[in-house]
Design a protein that fits this description.
With 276 residues, the chain is α+β, with helices and mostly antiparallel strands. The strands form 3 sheets. Strands 1-2-4-3 form a 4-stranded antiparallel beta sheet, sandwiched between helices. A 3-stranded antiparallel beta sheet has the order 7-8-9. It has 2 domains: 100 residues, Phosphorylase Kinase, domain 1 (2-Layer Sandwich); 167 residues, Phosphatidylinositol 3-kinase Catalytic Subunit, Chain A, Domain 5, CATH 1.10.1070. α6 packs across α9 and α9 packs across α13. The N and C termini lie far apart (48 Å). It is 44% helix and 14% strand. The structure holds adenosine-5'-triphosphate and magnesium ion. The site of magnesium ion has 3 residues, from loops.
């Protein structure tokens, strides 16, 4: 991976000091992937392809570290996640996410949840709508509904406010049927930044997100109350250990402090109460 060179090139473009060589590097390594953050395709030592997500000059915290922390916690909570690792280049972090839509040289068809539902642009959708989509187009319907509910609970407890329906996706493993892709683009959002973002609603009617509401909606995901509580407990346990996991990932105390309000918040207290 030429992360150093690519990082230098993206920094140079943002500060408008790029050279022809910087541009050539990005042009050569660039990827057509969408999304808001600067990224590039990189090949790993074993020849698999990954996506490198770079910092932006106006970032107020280490976004890559937050994403890797969230992916690690989600995995601990039993969620299937994209393979990931954090590469530190000086004081900056680059999140390297292995592509899940490639099997050797072939490409698995991928669509976003927004495409699966045919959501018009600007229409936010809701988790229950996605559950109905899985019922209609899914391959392992029961398994994916359970997995989606687990992701919904994770998004509440880890303050993943970036959970719009292009950040959920589906892969075609079986002709004509869609399966949830591994989870990607999970971002814990500290309280200060939440005002600018709108989280995907639990149901079509929901205003304020709460765990009680998620539990009430569990039947739409094919879950009995006891199964739902078991999932809630697993996600609660994993996300409660966020600081320890962060330390194990060797994240700096100041980096972790910037994420504290994404994990310590009233919804966590609510989960604690519901679990008794
Ligand atoms: N591991 C992966 N394998 C294949 N495709 C992926 C993978 N991760 C992300 N993608 C695709 O690339 C797009 C952009 O990636 P990602 O969502 O991580 O970037 P972003 O810039 O953080 O997006 P956003 O605008 O939502 O903040 C995704 O919407 C998805 O379609
Ligand atoms: Mg995204």
């Amino acid at each position: 991976m030429r992360l150093n060179t690519l990082l230098h090139a993206t920094d140079a473009i943002h500060s408008e000091t790029e050279t022809a060589q910087d541009l050539r590097f990005l042009l050569g390594a660039g990827s057509p992937l969408g999304g808001a953050r600067p990224k590039s395709a990189v090949s790993l030592a074993d020849d698999r392809i990954a996506i490198a997500k770079f910092p932006k000059p106006d970032d107020t915290r280490n976004i890559a570290a937050g994403e890797i922390l969230a992916l690690t916690l989600a995995q601990q909570a039993g969620i299937q996640v994209a393979e990931h690792r954090l590469v530190s280049v000086g004081s900056q972090g680059v999140a390297v996410i292995t592509r899940f839509d490639r099997v050797k040289n072939t490409r698995l068809p991928f669509i976003s949840a927004a495409s699966l539902l045919g959501l018009p642009h600007g229409e936010p959708g809701a988790y229950t709508m996605l559950a109905d989509g899985i019922r209609q187009f899914g391959d392992d319907v029961a398994g994916d509904l359970r997995e989606l509910w687990r992701r919904l609970i994770f998004s509440l407890l880890a303050s993943n406010y970036d959970d719009h329906l292009r950040n959920h996706g589906f892969l075609m493993h079986q002709p004509g049927r869609w399966s949830l892709s591994p989870a990607y683009d999970l971002n814990p959002v500290p309280e200060i930044d939440r005002v600018r973002m709108s989280k995907t609603a639990i149901t079509e009617e929901q205003q304020e997100p709460s765990l009680a509401l998620a539990l009430d909606a569990a039947a739409r995901f094919g879950l009995k109350g006891t199964e739902a509580k078991k999932i809630l407990r697993a996600v609660f346990t994993a996300t409660s250990g966020w600081r320890k996991t962060g330390r194990q990932l060797r994240l700096k105390a100041s980096t972790l402090d910037a994420y504290a309000s994404a994990f310590e918040h009233p919804l966590r207290d609510e989960a604690n109460r519901l679990l008794g």
